[in-house]
Amino acid sequence: MRNILFFLPLLGCIFILSCSRPAPAGDELRPMAQQTVTAEPQGEREAFIDDYWRWSFGDAGLPDELARKVAESAAQGPDFVMELLEILEGDPYLYILVDKQHGLPEGYEPEDLVDLSGGSYQVSREGLKLRRAAAAALEEMALAARTEGVTLAAGSAYRSAAYQAEVYAREVSNYGQEAADRESARPGYSQHQTGLAVDFAPIDDAFADTAAGRWLLKNAGSFGWSLSFPNGYEAVTGYRWESWHYRYVGNSLVRFIDTYFDGVQQYGLQFINAWIESSEPKRAGL
Length: 286
Ligand SMILES: [Zn+2]
Description:
The chain is of the alpha+beta class. It contains 13 helices and seven strands. 51% of the residues lie in helices and 8% in strands.
């Protein structure tokens, strides 16, 4: 009962928001959280609250302490839900969960890839590509770094599923499957296939102690970039610490992750994924 009371303010917020916002566009990845709650008959509110409580602590896979912190933030006022809805109304590939268990849609290939020209940053080789928004954000970030005397270099960026298959096979052949799985994704399951992830050079553990590595750790978030596989989170992300691998998620999502999820991208994306999935059965019944 205490749990239910806890979430009443949050539900109130969602009801208000769902009445005041237009329906989202028909993108298949776009969640329908607003409609879910709007369509909920009054008599089913308690059932909905029970669902909400269960998935926020179960399906999202958050540690108990963090889940409680998130739930408290959500219950405190409209900010949390407002920020979440703003993210969900944006490009779904900014927040899509891509990890060892969650792959991209079959054959996914971004439509707006552009060549990395190496404006304010260096490139390790020709032909590196990113999606347009990520490339622009990389240039903006690299320019800021350069004004502080730090040079960023892109070592790897977009990888097609076919190319990722080659990379993964090479890692397995060089280091064995177990070691390969700690730092290389199977095709279809790589953040690099989104066209939104960059490995900064040099791509090795020494990167963390370079000027670029330290600068990025401190400043990347201001430009919409998020460290995907932080130190000490292998059990959470499935990957060992990769100080060089950043994913562009946009400014709103970086702030959301920093504010509510201790800066851990994986937790924030797991939460959003659980939110979307919890909407699916209700959407089907509408
Ligand atoms: Zn990478």
